[in-house]
Amino acid sequence: MGLHVLVTGGAGFVGANVVSALLDAGFDVRILDNFSTGQRDYLPKDVMIIRGDILNKSDVETAVSNIDAIVHLAAQTGVIGSIEDPYHDCQLNIVGTLNLLEACRIHNIKKFVYASSNAPLGKQSPPATEDKAPLPISPYGASKLAGEGYCLAYHGSWGVNTVVLRFANLYGPFSIHKNSVVAQFLKDIVERGEITIDGDGEQTRDFIYVKDLCDVIIKALTSDIGGEIFQIATGKETSIQELAQMIQHTISSPISIKQGPGRQGDIRKNYSAISKVKRELNWEPQVSLEEGLRATYSWFTKWQQSH
Ligand SMILES: NC(=O)c1ccc[n+]([C@@H]2O[C@H](COP(=O)([O-])OP(=O)(O)OC[C@H]3O[C@@H](n4cnc5c(N)ncnc54)[C@H](O)[C@@H]3O)[C@@H](O)[C@H]2O)c1
To answer: How far is the CA of 255 from the centre of ligand 1 (A)?
Structure first.
């Protein structure tokens, strides 16, 4: 395809998967990452990496030279981190995003794909949709919402084709450094053969395999769409209890499933409606939870053996 794509945060969980999918699809890829959570070992040897910070304008300038499109993933990625240090979260997620959007405006980069989440919707009851008013309940939700706002503004004011993708609960390879429920369960299984469910396990989430996400990112990069928000999920609710059972079924060895105290402020039900992305980007997820968990578990065991 020949497009020159910059992936910020390309050494992280989503980034490593996106970089590999883009290279496979024939894109020319460059990464801007400060390796605060990302890992060099996740990436192919010969990929072009700029070790730098999205808050450093000169690093951003170097990174965007001769680039046609940006996939912006680098961020403060967690609710807890945002509660511990809201200023850091604000700097990284708002000012960092603005730095990249400004680079698009100045250098006439016409496509910008932004990694958002359901956190901007906050208090809204499920399903998460594009047209519900955002009511964030964490600084992370507020900073991601501000990023979404700037994306829409750079489309409205300067015609940058910004596409906001609100990712649901992602899982897949290259996530051993993450504390998401699937990553935590698989790490605990590989290390101790045991997992602990927080609370009664009846809380639900919408789990999407990262390869499906990579497919929609490529669709967003190659479409003419701009100034739009899309929920990226499966549209299916799975309880943590069901997830644990499915993991047990997927890996053939026995595991012990324990119950721990519930987490304060844990959301009970969460899933997204995906009719807009199906209609406008002609995308829908292809990988079943069972299939995705099997592939993720296999990656975790191989990684553990080789590190
Ligand atoms: N993983 C999920 O389930 C999920 C869900 C919703 C949204 N998201 C969003 O997807 C994006 C990627 O998340 P992830 O799960 O891959 O996280 P991650 O921590 O694995 O990846 C983030 C990457 O950004 C890099 N980075 C952080 N600060 C940087 C800075 N100042 N300059 C340059 N690079 C920096 C890190 O080193 C890392 O490689 C984030 O924007 C996150 O908010 C993730």
So the answer is: 30
Task: Give a yes or no: residue 277 inside a domain.
Answer: no
Do 151 and 182 have their domain in common? no
Is 109 a member of any domain?
Answer: yes
Into how many domains does the chain fold? Answer: 2
pLDDT digits (tens, 9 = 90+) for 232-285: 999 999 999 999 999 999 987 788 999 999 887 778 999 999 999 999 999 999
Residue 307 and residue 304: Cα distance in Å, rounded?
5
Q: How far is the CA of 152 from the centre of ligand 1 (A)?
A: 21
Instruction: Assess whether 140 and 55 both reside in one domain.
Output: yes
The reply to whether the predicted model has a pTM over 0.85 is: yes
Ligand 1 atom, smallest distance to 37 CA: 37
pLDDT of residue 251: 86
* Residue at token pair 């997992």: 195
Which ligand 1 atom sits nearest the alpha carbon of residue 78? Answer: 43
pLDDT, tens digit, for every residue of 158-180? 999 999 999 999 999 999 999 99
Q: How far is CA 185 from CA 68, 160, 166, 196, 243, in A?
A: 39, 40, 24, 8, 10
